[in-house]
Recover the amino acids of this structure.
């Protein structure tokens, strides 16, 4: 049969289970997808990233870091710049969740650089939003505001309204950190989508 298709389906089911909070069964499905794909000789980096995200969500940050580093190695061997960008963004998210803000910022820089090379504008905006979140965490409010301005320009230029709620939530956070008015209006916009 189609082992690659079966692995993709198994991985997709793992993601559904992960999103429902059934982490143990999700992990089993991811491991099955990794094993099936490895037996075909095809790259497993994408599935390693999904498993890393599961571990990030459960707070097993060290395991998540190990998995995403393995995924990055696989993507480098392939020369898959887009997949490297996604893996670096995940690395940044793991570091952000773990409170490793310098490492998170560096990882988001790596993701952003690769997204710029590949011309993936929506991903560039998302990485700038993540960098703004890091800046807020370390109280670099002006830097966060500059990142949000850059992200907003890309969002508007690309017509990518999916990022607007996150942008507005972070703008509200900047208003709060600066003790400026406007937070409530930005939160309202964030909630409205």
């Amino acid at each position: 049969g189609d082992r690659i298709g079966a692995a993709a389906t198994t991985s997709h089911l793992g993601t559904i289970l992960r999103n429902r909070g059934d982490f143990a069964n999700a992990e089993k499905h991811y491991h099955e997808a990794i094993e099936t794909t490895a037996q075909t000789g095809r790259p497993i980096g994408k599935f390693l990233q999904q498993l890393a995200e599961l571990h990030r969500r459960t707070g097993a940050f060290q395991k998540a870091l190990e998995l995403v580093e393995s995924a990055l190695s696989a993507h480098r061997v392939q020369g898959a710049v887009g997949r490297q960008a996604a893996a670096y963004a995940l690395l940044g998210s793991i570091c952000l969740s773990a409170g490793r803000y310098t490492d998170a910022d560096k990882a988001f820089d790596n993701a952003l650089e690769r997204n710029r090379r590949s011309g993936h504008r929506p991903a560039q905006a998302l990485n700038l939003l993540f960098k703004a979140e890091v800046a807020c965490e370390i109280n670099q409010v002006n830097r966060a505001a500059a990142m949000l301005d850059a992200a907003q320009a890309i969002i508007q230029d690309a017509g990518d309204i999916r990022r607007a709620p996150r942008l507005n939530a972070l703008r509200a956070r900047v208003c709060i950190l600066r003790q400026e008015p406007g937070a409530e209006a930005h939160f309202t916009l964030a909630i409205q989508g």
In short: The chain has a mean pLDDT of 94. The two ends are 43 Å apart (CA to CA).
